[in-house]
Specification:
The chain is an alpha/beta fold. The chain contains 8 helices and 12 strands. It folds into 4 domains: 82 residues; 27 residues; 67 residues, Roll (Ubiquitin-like (UB roll)); 142 residues, 3-Layer(aba) Sandwich (Rossmann fold).
């Protein structure tokens, strides 16, 4: 019974010592924190450099150990505990109180300058303007894409006289509701010019919703019979537009034209391009004077002795010298035929310098 009373007294003493140690350490930390804050304020006011964290922790540990050593002797406490221990009750010596975490007081934040405030205001204003610009741009894009003002409602085609509007419209593929400004005119022109009679295509966008298409057609000028029952359709530059087994238009048939090869959509290849140029020259002049549809036959086997037949009159124009004057003379003769009573025959226009030209009646 006495042994138990002695153990209780020892436990009460240990508990009291631990509480006293904890209270003492808290008081030391509080006193030192106040003292450090006063020193820190003095150093800050005097413009001194602040103490580093390592120096601060080292100095605080030394002060803590010094204060604690005056009230608590660890070796003496352990000896007393061993002597008073009994066989039935063993009391472990109290551990040294753990050091509490120390937080170094933060230095005061300096006040913001007017320049910093103005800079922040400028940044906020820039961000606001940028956000407004993004919203405005998005609104413009939506209007651009979905407004009926930019949709194709009408397609008008100009300049075509052989190719129909329906065929050109099909190749354009400009459907109602397509976007007028996003319509790919380059690709549409390529599709239209797949027809060999079309030489050029231009577009004009007219708000709201109208697309004007301007086409340039190649004019069919003559036929060439390259084999029995097969005719090449040529324009005024000698380009092969198509091949058919018949001629259904009042245009001249070129007789005696020598060529090496031909390809659809390309200019026919001849042994003498310069001589063929004379033939092309006469077809262009006859077309410009409105006579090409009256020509029934052109004999071009000898390009220095070209013969053109109109209204049963054969005009021998020779070569390409004074070609325009010869064509105008032919037009004057044809206009005078009803009054002169000219019968089918031939007219020699090879040399106009004589001031007159031979005329004969075909037998």
């Amino acid at each position: 019974m006495k042994k138990n009373d002695k153990g209780d007294k020892l436990n009460n003493k240990l508990t009291k010592n631990v509480k006293d140690d904890i209270a003492s350490s808290e008081k030391i930390n509080e006193d030192y924190s106040d003292e450090f804050n006063e020193e820190l304020d003095r150093d800050y006011d005097n413009g001194l450099e602040e103490e580093t964290n390592e120096d601060y922790d080292s100095r605080l540990d030394e002060d803590y150990d010094e204060e604690l050593g005056e009230e608590f002797d660890e070796e003496e406490f352990e000896e007393e505990s061993i002597e008073e221990s009994t066989e039935e009750s063993v009391v472990k010596p109290a551990k040294k109180p753990k050091k509490q975490a120390r937080v170094r007081p933060s230095s005061p934040t300096p006040p913001r300058t007017p320049q910093q405030i103005a800079a922040d205001q400028r940044v906020n204003k820039t961000r606001f303007l940028l956000a407004a610009a993004v919203c405005l741009f998005s609104l413009v894009v939506l209007i651009f894409l979905f407004s009926p003002f930019f949709h194709i409602n009408e397609v008008h085609i100009f300049g075509n006289f052989r190719i129909t509007d329906e065929e050109i419209g099909t190749r354009l593929n400009a459907q109602d509701g397509s976007h007028l400004l996003l319509f790919n005119t380059r690709r549409a022109a390529e599709r239209v010019m797949e027809n060999r009679y079309i030489s050029a295509v231009e577009f004009d966008r007219i708000m709201p919703g109208r697309l004007h298409v301007y086409v340039t057609e190649r004019r069919l000028t003559a036929f060439v019979e390259h084999m029995p029952g097969s005719f090449l359709y040529l324009d005024d530059s000698g380009r092969v537009l198509e091949i058919r087994s018949y001629t259904n238009e009042p245009l001249p048939v070129l007789v005696g034209l020598q060529f090496t090869r031909f390809q659809l959509g390309e200019i026919i290849e001849v042994p003498d391009p310069a001589a063929f140029g004379t033939v092309v020259l006469y077809t262009q002049l006859l077309s410009s004077h409105g006579l090409i549809d009256q020509v029934t036959r052109m004999s071009v086997g000898d390009t220095s002795n070209i013969r053109i037949t109109m209204h049963n009159i054969e005009f021998n124009v020779g070569g390409g010298t004074n070609a325009d004057e010869k064509v105008r003379t032919m037009a004057a003769i044809l206009d005078a035929m009803p009054n002169l009573g000219i019968v089918p025959g031939f007219v020699d226009l090879r040399d106009l310098s004589r001031g007159w030209f031979p005329f004969g009646i075909l037998q």
